[in-house]
Specification:
This protein has 193 residues and is an alpha+beta fold. It is built from seven helices and six strands. A two-stranded antiparallel ribbon has the order 1-4. A hairpin with a 4-residue loop joins strand 2 and strand 3. The protein is elongated and about 75 Å long.
């Protein structure tokens, strides 16, 4: 490359190649990070004028893109220190979030629900398989699956008129395992949960 204003572009290119983020497939990397941080409604807008495809694979590799996302709760901040007017929006946020968190943790406090979540890290399950896994009745396993679905941990697809449940957010289960130090123990080490 030629130098413009004494800038060595080959050196710039080498530095860019050495940056860790240059090795990531983007915007897939961005979406993964944002979803792990709790952002929802993630939308990618490609800003490239032409169709940027890499080699023979035909994979779209945008140069310019924008990522839009939102957190599932409002962004409330106290700018000038606490005061009566500034605490009201925070109190509303805390009240709403505390109910959601309580409902989620009530599902996670059910040992059978946790067993199902950990099992679904490896395999999708029908209610019959869940009942067999838990050693309980079909109605009880169905009730536990409904709790997991209502909490947003699982969803299902139909195959041969049978519901097959799968994890919707494997990353959340992984984070829960890390939070409780399960991965550092003998239980799930190297299982890729």
């Amino acid at each position: 490359m030629t130098n413009v204003n004494n800038v060595d572009f080959t050196r710039c290119d080498r530095l860019a190649e050495e940056l860790p983020l240059s090795r990531e497939f983007r915007p897939t990397w961005d979406v993964n990070i944002l979803s792990r941080l709790g952002f929802r409604d993630i939308d990618i807008r490609y800003l490239d004028a032409g169709d940027n495809r890499t080699g023979d694979t035909g994979i779209h590799a945008p140069v310019n893109f924008a990522v839009c996302a939102r957190l599932p709760y409002s962004n409330v901040s106290i700018a000038d220190g606490p005061g009566p007017d500034q605490l009201e929006p925070v109190m509303g946020l805390v009240d709403g979030m505390s109910d959601d968190i309580k409902d989620t943790w009530s599902v996670l406090s059910n040992k059978d629900c946790v067993k199902l979540l950990l099992s679904m890290c490896s395999v999708d399950l029908t209610v019959g398989q869940a009942a067999e896994l838990l050693g309980c009745s079909y109605p009880l396993a169905s009730h536990d699956m409904k709790k997991l679905k209502d909490a947003g941990f699982v969803d299902f697809y139909k195959e041969n008129n049978e519901k097959i449940y799968f994890l919707t957010r494997r990353d959340i289960i992984n984070d829960l395992c890390i939070m409780t130090n399960i991965l550092s123990g003998k239980h799930l080490k190297s299982k890729g949960v």
